[in-house]
Records
---
Amino acid sequence: MTSTKRTFKHLTGTVSFSMTCIPCLYRSKINDPRVMTTLSVLLGVNLMTSEDDEPPTYNDSKPKAAPATKKQKPEPMDTEEMDPDKKKSLELKGMGNEAYKKKEFDNAIEYYDKAIELDKSNITLLTNKAAVYFEKKEYDLCIKECEKAIEVGRENRADYKLIAKAFARIGNAYMKLEDYANAKTFYNKSLTEHRTADTLKKLQQVEKVEKERERLLYIDPEKSLVEKTAGNECFKKGQYPEAVKHYTEAIKRAPDDAKLYSNRAACYTKLAEFSLGLKDCDECIKLDPTFIKGYIRKGAILLALKENGKAMSAYQKAIDLDPSCQEAIDGYSRCVSSQSSDPEEIRQNAMQDPEVQQIMQDPAMRMILEQMQQNPSALREHLKNPAIAAKIQKLLDVGLIAIH
């Protein structure tokens, strides 16, 4: 503590006095446990205990990773001058925490109830009791205790982090009850009080679950068939945008029906929306790799995009599934005709691709290609090697080579 002498001149003379530095006085007293204890009692707020004085939870949150640096432990609280009821309440709380850790949940509740009777202003007693109910899977009681905790916390101006924790615990209870709408509401309330990564992650999880539930509840094969029929009628009339709308609704009602994606791809092709059509073809093939129409429609789109090599591959897969499919055979023929119209242009375009350049500069690949030209039956052996097969497929896609 320091003392400063001040002198002021006044019309009537000079006045001198000493003034003690207030910050110094504050620093000299604030660390005195007796001062802190007195303030705690007067304000009704425990200024000497950690805000996280709760037992660890088992189910409602994952254990947190150990901090990179050790936190300095708070100094032991001086309870000599504390209100006897509050002092006894803290002792009972500690006993409740120990019982909780041992999973002696009924004993823990008994200790917390006795502690609450002695100190009705301590929010952590209520949130601790709620944690016990959560472990006992008595989620409705957990919610009620957290609601009481929030009310007590508001009345006694508790730390917003403790109130946020109570809101988050309500969200956890609603998650267990599969009431996702309420879980989402209370996670948002918790984040409004205090934003933590753990609560934010839980909110994202509940939003994902809620969205998936809504999607599943929307599925209805019968309504999907109605929309598909309406889409077919619009397609026949050349009303392609309307057909897309009907097929899109049909897909929402039956998302695993490969034919619906194929139908919508046909509409996108008519509308020259080739990228969207190609995406639908890929989804169609993914859902049903044996559906020939999916490969044929993909081949048509790729041919329109002048990606003849890829189009040939799509048509070839359709032919492999059904060698007598005339539509696939005709499509493959169109690819060959288009390629043979200007082979030099095709070669120049292909060689602009760095991956193609690397393949063609590989001595081993050049030897394989020469061998294939002299002995076409050797191709089958080379395709057994995945790395070589991928390179051959690339050359087929860009139209540098063709297999007849």
---
Amino acid sequence: MRPEPGQVLHFSEDPAITRFVPHVAATARQRTPYVWAVDAPRCPDYWFPRECPRAMAWTTPTSGGSDLLGPGETRLHAIEHHWLERLRTTRLYAYRLPAAAFTPFGDHAHVCTHPVDPLGPAEPVGDLLALHEEAGIQLRLLANLWPLWDAITTSTLGYSGIRLRNARPRP
């Protein structure tokens, strides 16, 4: 599930959104209300239940040798074991939004400061495990995310963590 040219995507477990209105997320560091979306390279970051904590890493042009990824692997996602059933059963939807309404936000998102109507109805994303497999993304199940997170963040890999506050406590 990726956007077509001229589009960005918003992922949600709600299939009935008819208009996206800017808001300040409870966990936001900024106070500006936004509508959030992602472009094609960052879509896989959101192939998860919304509240699922995940650690993600990928090779970059400046990544050195790393034993965190297997031979030939370029991207890794990790979740905790107890989230697997939710990953298997969550019904996730993608909304296509006009990219021209958005501006880049950091290296991971696009934002809009005015209401945005989707370009069409919500589209079922499908089997989240299958999406990872089809995209060639290594998906790891761990008892606890923190040891991997600590290794990723001190490596030369690109990385992102989402909803880490929902992860089990550090061992």
